[in-house]
Amino acid sequence: MAEEKFEPKITAFVCNWCTYTGADLAGTSRLKQQPNARLIRVPCTGRIDPVFILKAFESGADGVLISGCHPNDCHYNTGNFHARRRWIFFKDLLDFVGIDESRLHFSWVSASEGKKWVDVINGVINKVREQGPFINYKKTNPLEVTKVDFEKGEVA
Amino acid sequence: MQTVIEVAKKLFEEKKVYCVVGYTPDGGNKTKPFIAYSVEDTDKLVFNHYAINNLAVYLNRLTKKGPVGVVAKGCDIRAIVGLIQENQFKKEDVFIIGMNCNGVVEDKYDEFDKENTQIKCKYCNIRTPHLYDELAGELQDFEIPEDPQGPLMEKILKMTPDERWEFWKAEFDKCIRCYACRQVCPMCYCEQCIADKSVPQWIETSATIRGNFSWNLIRAFHMSGRCVGCHECERVCPQEIPISLLTRKMGMLAGKEFGYRHGMAVDQPTLVGNYNLSDREDFIK
Asked: Which of A84, A96, A136 is the closest to B246 by Cβ?
């Protein structure tokens, strides 16, 4: 079997009011971006529970991007402030159990920043591509392990 | 200094509480949690080096029926204050019998010795409680031995991400998902735990390495800025996973980043429930 080039899967949690609209603007402005990201629209960054991030990794994401309104721009006034404080802890916790920093990215992208969105998402995709597949987390999936072993011929 | 029994008797006579949560001998030389409902019951109360349990875990339920007296060490009082900070009950609902604590024994040893105190006692600095209604017990001279968890923590912090991953993978692999850590934790009081939710199921319930990672990480995250460091989770863990390292790391971050310690003052706003305009955001692009 020829070796396939690794293409990362990125899960991006974006807020409805800023980044999703910003990404939409990037599309309507016909700015080029790499197609590796799957966007998940949430009402606000404050809605993003850290289990979402773990679930994304569990489901095979190689990297996660979280993006929302700039501080003081939140549609709900304080959602991103609450989220920001939570991330400080969650980021540190993931680092402590050995999930590399390059797997989890954060950004503020407003509805008018289509160009910034393209830069951010391309940057994340390139960085994760450099890191390679997130083997560590993939190996925690019992089905994934069986598949790998099956392909190697280790499991009948 | 007065004893626990004297204070508890006084509380019942003045009708300040309807029950007192304390410790009673378990038949051997250890103690077990005990709820006294009358003056006669109070004779069974004790407090010594074997008063291990954190009794704050019972308060959420008991305070629903009326004011409760509770025998508490410094570390337990942090949990009580933390619960008050989080509006689980009011200060008037609890009557804290603060104990001068000389350290408690590690569960696996039968006899108390300065060497075999619990890890938390080895770096404890609230041996005389910071908040109480009545103070009881004698404070002895007590040399604080070295913190045994410190070197392990430093070792993990020096590892590369991959080494850390392998370390935790080996530890979490042992987890049997008995949820003892959750049940014993005074700060884990959600009526429905996210680990029990089935639609959608966020955390895999079977004890696979994947579910174990989710469970332990989410548990630690929910404790961030809230853990009071009573080490009960690690004490009850049947698999002896050093899970208190995770919550302790979160506590260290809260101290370093925000100068915050949970459960120190009743009127202090909680850490993760609030925000500051000047919070760090150097990691956000």
From this structure: A96
